[in-house]
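ping. complex inputs:
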Amino acid sequence: MADNIEKVKCLIIGSGPAGYTAAIYAARANMAPILYQGMQPGGQLTTTNEVENYPGYPDGITGPEMMIELQKQSERFGTDVRDGWVTKVDFSGPVHKVWVNETTEIHCDTVIISTGATAKYLGLPSEQKYLNLGGGVSACAVCDGFFYRNQEVVLVGAGDSAAEEAHYLSKLCKKVTMLVRRDAFRASKIMEARVRNTENIEILFNTETDEVLGDGQVVTGVRAKNKVTGEKFDIPATGFFVAIGHKPNTDIFKDYLELDETGYIIKTPGTAKTNVEGVFVSGDAADHVYRQAITAAGTGCMAALDAERYLASKEVHEENEVA
Ligand code: NDP
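pong. complex structure:
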């Protein structure tokens, strides 16, 4: 065993609301947590402009500001927040091994996974431009729909998420135009029916996005293309919502943890426990349904409490063995 291996009680992987909340609870429980921030410090919220639905911020707060505050709060109780990317794990033995940046090896009594999920985008340059400008491209209707009240929006996708988000937006917006790339939905029949029966949702089948149109600052419309006829046409819109799925950031855990068919970590219901003792999960890495900052924070709390109880029960067990 190399001399420079660090031993930690609680390692937290990921720096979104789940990771920082886990860190606040773990630090206050004297678990001396170390948190690795990953590639996108602050997580998905750093790509969100205004967060208005997180309790405690009556005037709203920007995503990046909120993440800085969460980081500060976790550091106030002694969390060691580090830059670094966890590249490999080995959960096969009693000690959980984690490698950071391919090189640094850490041995952990407990690991809390808060690596989140990444929203998929179409990848069009115009879409990425207005996404980066914060000018009307979003992958979360619940987060951003409110900004488009009484306006016209376009939504891409045909799965359950798209159906749910279109329905959510239809209650806020004047009109929702749904672009479905095939001639059929992927969503469940009941979700499809709900969308079809909503008056202010127009569904365009066999239609893809050719370009997101804008004035250089904000979105003004979408150029769509009918895949059957080849015809291109413009749809006026101030918001462009992408609901084509998420990819949970769980690849490095797949040899050790039970994942569902999409890659979400399966946990014991009502807990943050994975199938490996001492390894816990919080946030979007295990949640394809709610995906909100507040639910991620809630499960971060659960993961830290479960980790603390696991350590306490292990200590009792070890004391009994010595006695
Ligand atoms: P899905 O993978 O189920 O659906 C993705 C949709 O996006 C598909 O219709 C797909 O089209 C479309 N799509 C993918 N890429 C593109 C593209 N480049 N251009 C245009 N369209 C594209 O993802 P969801 O996020 O909807 O759902 C993920 C899982 O979560 C599912 O199992 C779902 O059932 C579940 N879920 C359940 C909910 C609930 O029960 N309340 C709510 C939300 C999600 P195509 O069909 O042609 O492949």
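Residues 122, 156-162, 164, 181-182, 186, 244-246, 288-289 surround NDP (CB under 6 Å).
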